[in-house]
């Protein structure tokens, strides 16, 4: 997964905090029961003492290492049974003094045998949701809530296909984009009039990839160019950090919504080309949605941006009439 070292370190620091919090909880519990049950404190000291004695004996007499290890194992088992009995007698759970972990699979380290634990993967997903600008909308707009029924089944005379059948094709291509995301580098451009579901599908794609531990950044064209503008012209104010810009270039998927609605000038065109071209060179996928038809791209942007988009992106055309009212009826 692509994320900055700074981002990843932020997540790992939460594991340090978990460990510190839980060690403090263990210490508080231990002090409480040791004060209430002096015999329990004595047993604890005995466990520490015989463990140290056994280790030292094994070092001094390596030929009898197995004997000392077995003797220690038997003694510890007996003492631990006595500890549990004392806890139960005094109204505590037998596991009250066991180590405390948020995740017992990795013991709050984030790793199991040098592999990321499921809890760390989930933490990365949660972080990605926060960074994607999509957290609140994805519960409403996803493939589970997507409906073909809002599209007309009446065939378009000029195109020879109905909006319903066209959307079936578009939907299949989007699903294939997700299915082969890790093995087949692709980019998508979703274009058509307003209100045909382009943003909805962008959100649905984003959710699927976020849920499979990929980093996704979702920005409207206005937001994207505002970021670049603030970074370029207001750097001293640190409105936008280096990490913010780096994330745009290295995230697994960048979604640019409503491209073509922004105020376009030489600077925005240069920034757009640099962004798209860099991601192409690094094989980082991008999804673009726009109301612009292919013939309008050259008028809005330069020839090299247009060739980049339509030369290296799969074009998905949306047809029909505004379906927004149908979707919520």
The CATH architecture of the largest domain:
3-Layer(aba) Sandwich
Sheet of most strands:
5 strands, parallel
Mean pLDDT across the residues is 86
- Estimate nothing, just give the exact number of structural domains: 2
- Overall geometry comes to elongated
- Helix/strand/pairing category: alpha/beta
Tally of DSSP β-strands: 7
- Distance from first to last alpha carbon: 39 Å
The helix/strand order is HHHEEHHEHEHHEHEHHEH
Q: Give the number of helices.
A: 12
**CATH C-level category of the largest domain:** Alpha Beta
pLDDT < 50 stretches: none
Description:
The protein has 329 residues and is α/β, with parallel strands linked by helices. It has two domains: 12-115, no CATH class; 133-327, P-loop containing nucleotide triphosphate hydrolases (Rossmann fold, 3-Layer(aba) Sandwich), CATH 3.40.50.300. Helices cover 56% and strands 9% of the residues. A hairpin with a 2-residue loop joins β1 (111-112) and β2 (115-116). α2 runs antiparallel to α3 (65-89) and α9 runs parallel beside α11 (303-312). The longest helix has 32 residues, at 5-36.
């Amino acid at each position: 997964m692509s994320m900055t070292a700074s981002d990843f370190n932020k997540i790992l620091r939460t594991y340090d905090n978990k460990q510190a919090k839980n060690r403090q909880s263990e210490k508080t519990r231990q002090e409480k029961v040791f004060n209430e049950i002096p015999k329990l404190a004595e047993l604890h000291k005995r466990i520490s003492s015989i463990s140290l004695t056994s280790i030292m004996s094994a070092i001094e007499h390596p030929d009898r290492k197995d004997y000392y290890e077995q003797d220690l194992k038997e003694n510890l088992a007996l003492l631990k049974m006595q500890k549990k009995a004392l806890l139960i007698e005094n109204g505590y759970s037998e596991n009250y003094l066991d180590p405390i972990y948020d995740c017992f699979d990795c013991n709050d380290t984030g790793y199991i045998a040098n592999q990321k634990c499921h809890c760390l993967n989930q933490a990365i997903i949660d972080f990605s949701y926060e960074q994607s600008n999509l957290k609140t909308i994805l519960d409403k707009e996803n493939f589970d809530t997507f409906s073909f029924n809002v599209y007309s089944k009446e065939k378009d005379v000029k195109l020879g296909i109905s909006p319903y059948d066209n959307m079936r094709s578009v939907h299949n291509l989007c699903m294939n984009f997700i299915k082969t995301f890790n093995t087949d580098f692709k980019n998508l451009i979703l274009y058509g009039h307003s209100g045909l579901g382009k943003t909805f599908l962008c959100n649905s794609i984003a959710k699927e990839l976020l849920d499979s531990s990929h980093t996704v950044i979702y920005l409207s064209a206005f937001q994207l160019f505002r970021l670049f503008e603030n970074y370029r012209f207001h750097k001293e104010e640190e409105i936008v950090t280096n990490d913010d810009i780096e994330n745009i270039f290295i995230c697994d998927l960048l979604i640019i919504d409503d491209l073509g609605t922004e105020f376009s000038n030489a600077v925005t065109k240069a920034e757009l080309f640099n962004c798209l071209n860099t991601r192409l060179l690094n094989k980082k996928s991008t999804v673009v949605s726009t109301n612009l038809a292919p013939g309008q791209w050259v008028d809005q942007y330069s020839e090299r941006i247009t060739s980049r988009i339509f030369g290296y992106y799969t074009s998905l055309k949306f047809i029909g009439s505004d379906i927004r009212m149908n979707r919520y009826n």
